């Protein structure tokens, strides 16, 4: 039964995304204003090109302490290597991944285009249907 439940049925679809050319201070402001710990970075075609987290934004302050320059582009501070999940991945397989990886959530892609995000909380919502 759990194998038949897939990620696309429980993922969050309306995401706050950032552009690689966006000013990093604006990206940090976006995270704070929306009370999120990170956001996917997408190009003009909707392809996932990275992720920016609160930790990445803290690098700006660290960088400024040495170079006395605040800011830069998101592309300079984002994580480029992002682990993703395909939309048709089973919740069972994703649950196994959550048990072995430290990540709390993953971007969901179809043909490298960002279509959503799935979290541990979303998996629990899916499991709730079986209880």
Task: Provide a compact summary of the structure.
Helices cover 37% and strands 20% of the residues. It is built from five helices and five strands, in the order αββααβαββα. Strands 3-4-5 form a three-stranded mixed beta sheet. Strands 1-2 form a two-stranded antiparallel sheet.
List the helices and strands and how they pair.
Elements: H1 24-34, E1 38-42, E2 48-53, H2 54-67, H3 74-77, E3 85-86, H4 91-100, E4 105-110, E5 113-119, H5 120-128
Helix pairs in contact: 4-5
Distance between the termini: 12 Å
User: What fraction of the residues are assigned to beta strands by DSSP?
Assistant: 15-25%
The strands making up the biggest β-sheet line up spatially as: 3-4-5
Mean pLDDT: 91
Q: What is the CA-atom radius of gyration, in angstroms?
A: 16 Å
How would you describe this protein?
The chain is of the alpha+beta class and 131 residues long. 37% of the residues lie in helices and 20% in strands. The chain is built from 5 helices and 5 strands; from the N terminus they run αββααβαββα. It has a 3-stranded mixed β-sheet. Helix 4 links the parallel strand 3 and strand 4. The mean pLDDT is 91.
Features:
131 residues, 3-stranded mixed sheet, 5 helices
């Amino acid at each position: 039964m759990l194998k038949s439940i897939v990620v696309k049925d429980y993922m969050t679809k309306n995401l706050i995304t950032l552009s690689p050319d966006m000013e990093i201070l604006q990206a940090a402001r976006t995270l704070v204003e929306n009370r999120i710990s990170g956001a996917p970075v997408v190009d003009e075609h909707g392809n996932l090109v990275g992720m920016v987290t609160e930790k990445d934004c803290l690098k700006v302050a660290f960088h400024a302490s040495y170079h006395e320059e605040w800011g830069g582009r998101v592309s300079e501070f984002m994580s480029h290597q992002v682990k993703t999940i395909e939309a048709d991945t089973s919740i069972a397989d994703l649950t196994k991944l959550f048990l072995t990886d430290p990540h709390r959530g993953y971007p969901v892609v179809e043909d490298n285009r960002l279509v959503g995000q799935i979290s541990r909380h979303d998996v629990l919502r899916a499991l709730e249907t079986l209880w």
